[in-house]
Amino acid sequence: MKTRMLFTLSLGVMIFMTLAFVLIRQGTPWIVPEKYKTMKNPVKLDKTAAAALYTTHCKSCHGKEGLGDGSKAAQLDTKCGDFSSAAFQKQSDGALFYKTLEGRDDMPSFKKKIPDENDIWQVVAYLRTFAE
Q1: pLDDT in tens, 28-87
Q2: Cα(4)–Cα(128) distance, integer angstroms
Q3: Best CA proximity match to 103, nearest among 123, 85, 86
């Protein structure tokens, strides 16, 4: 009886751990604080500067065309975003700014890597060009 109960408990824990792992891998919604949701990009795109920032900080994971197929993408535990998708492009500028600034999971925070917020806004403006 004790052996059966221990087996059942162990099986239950294994099932729970597997489900938790799958859910984490699939990702949870990325909650953007209210103050960022309505922010508008305050900078005009400087394509040369923005492309240089993108190449330095984003291209290795997100790829040349922003499809999420960069050279490092396959090594990540989470899927890189496809910047050309309608779902990505419908996000507000402020949401994209927040996600770039703060990061999550495999997406690093760029607070220290790109300390000038106007440069992060340049990246946000550049991400919009992938919809064209």
Answers
A1: 899 999 999 999 999 999 999 999 999 999 999 999 999 999 999 999 998 898 999 999
A2: 58
A3: 123
Query: Can you give the pTM of this predicted structure?
Result: 0.79
The three-state secondary structure class of 92 is coil
Treating both helix axes as pointing N-terminal to C-terminal, what angle do 47-57 and 117-128 enclose, rounded to 10 degrees? 100
Q: Which residues pair with 104 in a beta bridge?
A: 107
The answer to whether 27 touches 78, Cβ cutoff 8 Å, is yes
How far, in Å, CA of 28 to CA of 10, rounded?
27
* Nearest by Cα to 124 from 61, 74, 49: 49
Instruction: Give backbone dihedrals phi and psi of 42, rounded to 5 degrees, phi first.
Output: -85, -5
Helix/strand/coil for 107:
strand
Q: Which of 65, 58, 97, 64 lies closest to 84, judged by CA?
A: 65
Gap between the Cα atoms of 36 and 68, Å rounded: 24
